[in-house]
Specification:
With about 200 residues, this protein is of the alpha+beta class. It is built from 6 helices and 5 strands; from the N terminus they run αββαααββαβα. About 35% of the residues are buried.
Amino acid sequence: MTTAPAPELLLDHRGNPRPTREVPFGYEEARLGSAFHEAGHAVVAMAYGSHVVSSEVIAWFPEPDRYSVTGYTAYELRHASPWHFAATCAAGEITNVQYLMAYGLWTPERAVTCAADHDREQAIDVLADLGHRIGRDHVPAGGKSWGMVRGMARRRIGHLWREIRTVARAMNDHTQLTGDEIAAMTGLTNPPLPGGTA
């Protein structure tokens, strides 16, 4: 698309604009990286038993020689373990870095552009509301550090890399996938939404 998407798709869970940054590679690589990020969220959420509504890569050209890329994944984690939710939040960033490594694109500068602080902050806020603590750079009493949560996500991604790669490539080709399409192409189960509606 040539114009920016609906403003609400560019906001974090607090209603603030998600940060943007310049990336040191071209449009195709950035778009596929965003598809991997969203595929990481979607596949990990589904593997943890959560219903995935949809996952998409969002790209637009605000000017002829400038692009912007992001993504959005809608999933239901109301009945998931709090730590599974946190790992699902971390999965996007971890998957994006793994994409760079798998495709021979990794450099320290490029890896920094994969940071998804909005995902980390969402995990911290949601778990705090549930009485669990995540420390950004330490292990709080009775909780976990963000590094520990990232480790949980990294292990899950390692087991699901084939499925994530399949979903990311399909998302890059088709822009948006439903949870049922993701389930069909990966062999994972997309459970019904709580309350019996899908």
